[in-house]
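S., here's the first fold you wanted:
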Amino acid sequence: MTSAPKLQPIQTRLVMLQTGMRAPMGIKVFGPDLESIEKVGFELEKQLKHVEGVNGMSVFADRVVGKPYLEMEIDRDAIARYGISIKSLQSVLSSAIGGMQLTTTVEGRERFPVRLRYAREYRDNPEDLKKILIPAAGGAQIPLGELVEINYIRGPQLIKSENTFLVGYVIFDKKEGFAEIDVVENAQEYLNEKLESGEFVLPAGVSYVFTGNYENQIRATKRLMIVVPVSLMIIFLILYFQFRSVISTSLIFTGIIVALSGGFIMLWFYGQTWFLDFSLAGMNFRDLFQVQTINLSVAVWVGFIALFGVATDDGVLISTYIKQLQDKKPAKSVKEVRELIIEAGSKRVRPAIMTTATTIIALLPVLTSTGKGSDIMIPMAIPLFGGMTIEVLTMLVVPVLYSMWQESKVKKELKKLKE
């Protein structure tokens, strides 16, 4: 039994395809020989148990060396004395002990190999192996014990290699409430401190690298650093082509900032123990909405990107109506500007509320979903839900900013006329 992370069979397959190990996180130790790899692995196992966020019971280093092997060392002088070649001796050993396939039997659609070797009672211990007869020149039969020296040795349990180097694994898992990438960063920082202080020493030729699912997070983060700005830029350009004004587009763009704050507030709510901690009709709402700490995963950022796309709806709705009213009756004073803004804002309250409400209501089945895919969909929906809930404030923010902009324009025009 090992203390390796507990995984289900299908989950284990997926994890092994992603990381090459039977754990979501681990360290690959590269070295010139198995003994040094095992030694470093044991030291890493000892050090990792003290890292913040690492589940100490899950840390386990591969036992690379320790399997007993039966080694036969050929006495070259003895076989030369009997006129036996090394090739002929090894051929007899491989067939008598290991077994040699002679043919294949056919049973309907099935095929079975037919092997030839000594019966088990003649090869199941070293003393019996010494009695195996080896044919020599002239027809003599020489016991194997006179030709080889049989010894027990400790050898590798499994030999793994990667990038032309021998490799051993040190696997571990995180505690609840910690993100994988944070745990790996803590472990890297801790081991670097130990290396600098001399408490942990790497032998010559031995190196190690962290591996695991967190690598997907790092790759995704690098992509998101490009995707998120590009998405915001595209949204800005689409709005600009509609309104043909940088200032007007910027005012509408404030809806994204408001919605972004709402998304983070909702993520914070999900990490609080008191949030939705009540029951109705025997149903606990924390269980219904699966309230728990949500880390900033790729799914969460995908939810934010989707939020950016819909967060400007109310701003576009109000700005378009303000523009239409201005075209019909241009405002020539501050008072007229404010009256126009109040009229436009009050008449767009119901459409804006309906636009936001339909989005929020559509997200409720996703937030309460269970089963396959829910672990991805729920983190995506949380920023959308929180952002669209707070985004209602756009009905107040955009008209006020729009009024300030138009008032400043009117004041400048009046000032020019007086001059």
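And the second, which I think is the more interesting of the pair:
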Amino acid sequence: MTVTVSVSGVDKNYRKVRALRDVSFDLIPGRLSALVGHNGAGKTTLIKLMLGLIRSDRGAIRVMGQDPAAGEFSARRLLGYLPENVAFNAALTGRETLTFYARLKQIKPSKAWALLDRVGLADAADRRVGTYSKGMRQRLGLAQALLGQPRVLLLDEPTTGLDPALRQTFYEILNELRDDGATVLISSHALNELEDRAEHVLIMNQGRLVAQGTLTELRSLSQLPIRVTFDLAGGGNDEAAVSIAGEINSSPCRRTVLVSDEKGKMDLLRAAANDPRVENIEIAAPTLDDLYAHFLNTQEKAA
């Protein structure tokens, strides 16, 4: 499997502050990864290291096979980056701003202007950025990050200030890039947004990578229970409840059961399928919020 970003045994200190501690992971093409953690967990430091803005104290980082902190980092033109707090020259228009960044990437400005329409800024393209709202500046930042169809896209809190409609458009754009083989990494606190979109999750805490994997892998690793709730016709009875015994919460018409894994869930569903009194089944697997809290608590207890 091709690896576009490789982080191996990386440490980074800011004087007495240990920002990163022995962090290792790989990012691959055609996958959207989520980097999650509290403020100060090391997320932005990791992104700065991948961009070559700072150097690690120990370990190795490779982006598109190159060291981003080296003098010659030609792969930089294949990167797109959106910082958490975008800042542009207020005297320039949106079009002039995008033209400036296009020239830095050696892209014809006229080829970049379509991005202004894509992020909803076509009508404001020739207005000065100083008149833009926070959400509009965020849109402009997204447009510059998308210049040149980047092969690696690093986004730090990218949906801050975006309305729901543009947020949906934003993820549609990311899906197109991912499907075209780009590597996408989103650092965000919006775990509910990422739950159904991220194919790979990296959980940071106090500079350490405490867990990583798909949601299915993280759920299996956490061993957090799956909640299965049944609605029963006619109030149910003991005979009807045999196939769903062991509930943690019950009423005459509703029974809730906790199972420890996917196998237990499937066994329970097969048994319920043979019970004519079961009218409806609801399944609630541990959310990304649940998993995040679990792995942070586990690490802090072990420390």
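Why I say that: The chain has two domains: 5-89+136-219, 225-285. The radius of gyration is 24 Å.

Talk tomorrow,
H.
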